[in-house]
Amino acid sequence: MENQELDKIEKIRQQFDTVCYPRTPLEESPKDSHVLLYIHNLVTPYYLRNQKVIETEGKVILDAGCGSGYKALILAEANPGAKIVGVDISEESVKLARQRLEHHGFRNVEFHAISIEDLSSLGLEFDFINNDEVLYLLPDPVLGLQAMKSVLKPDGIIRTNLHSYFQRSGFFRAQEFCKSMGLMDENPQDLEIEIVRETMNALKNEVLLKSRNWTSNPTDKDEWIFMNYLLQGDKGFTIPEVFAALRNADLEFISMVGWRHWDVTDLFQDSENLPPFLAMSLPEISVEYRLHLFELLHPVHRLIDFWCGHPNGEQSFVSVAEWTEYDWETAQVYLHPQLKTLQVREDLLNCIAKQRPFIISSYIPLPTQVPIAVESMLAACLLPLWEGAQPMMSLVELWLKLRPLHPATLEPMSHETAFEEVKELLSMLEAFLYVLLERSV
């Protein structure tokens, strides 16, 4: 059995030596990829877990399974001042990763051709570990989780993911078909990719394997065929299996990366009027079970993509929904770093000048189900956040200056009304982590 597992690992290593993944051009920059930067910024999961804003300067971040280094580049862009370490079992991929980060001018980086199980040999501890599109390839994901946990700082966070068994079942069937044809006996290359393409195109369109997994996908791309039909070691998991792996690795679930896209109540026509049984039971059930219900009803997510950390590693805090008026009056307000760009600020100024709503979700649509728009004049209250964190009350005072009269009555705007309107705006934006709110200690 041990020899079989070693053979599988060797096949995977050879696979990524041959086809270094992802095949993103060396010169391509993620600077305008707001969603990717948002996901890979330590600020995002740290705030979700602790409701605190963390500085990335001096942090040590690991890209475990860095491949050709594009995600390591994203981590470097998203976390200014952090040291980036990348590891991968493919020496060829590591070479490309080094070239990529050097090309983009990042120097506080290092890369190693080692397995995840050998992370302790680096002699480092990490504030954040990114393990993207890797864990499902390991013979035992629990061992991978344990290896990452062993080098994670006490308050550190891991982002990792596994393929969804339910969403990806058609591709697992396709891989079995390719295995039966002998296309995966050795390391698949251009010939095997072309055989897959010819075979699938020759099938009738109504054949299920073709109609569900071929005709609606970018089948002209070799990389897509390789990563879906010929991927060595690919496996799928369910939510209960993911949570079981976390328990076995002694890790604690923090949140789904796309947490607002996993809300089971959103699957119903009227989320405020659920069937009585569900309306009574949902508030009482665990996060794990709610997520499991979602995947059984609507398995649309290819990845079960989540953040986790050491048990009891979170800091205690009072949720924003439970803040007192004093908490609000003394709060500090931050703009999420991935919105704090000159382009976003210019777009906001343009909306203000033309009196158009500011569609803040157009930059980071990930956490939202519908576009999030802010009335242009009210959005002007956010402008000071591009200069740095602001006291809540300074934003209220700005709002009083911007709109001294109530638009309906033309009476002077009261301090209480201004306070409530700014509070409502910030509460709405904080739910999507567009702004971050810190309660005074």
What would you note in describing this structure?
The protein contains 18 helices and 12 strands. By secondary structure, it is α/β, with parallel strands linked by helices. It has a 7-stranded mixed β-sheet with strand order 3-2-1-4-5-7-6, with helices on both faces. Helix 4 links the parallel strand 1 (60-64) and strand 2 (83-87). Helix 17 packs across helix 18. 37% of the residues are buried. The model has no long low-confidence stretch (mean pLDDT 93).
Protein topology:
Elements: H1 2-18, H2 34-40, H3 43-50, E1 60-64, H4 70-78, E2 83-87, H5 91-103, E3 109-112, E4 126-131, H6 141-149, E5 152-163, H7 169-180, H8 190-202, H9 208-213, H10 222-229, H11 239-248, E6 252-256, H12 276-281, H13 287-297, E7 303-309, H14 325-329, E8 332-335, H15 342-354, E9 358-359, E10 373-374, H16 376-379, E11 390-391, H17 392-402, H18 415-430, E12 435-438
Parallel strand pairs: 1-2, 1-4, 2-3, 4-5
Antiparallel strand pairs: 5-7, 6-7, 8-11, 8-12, 9-10
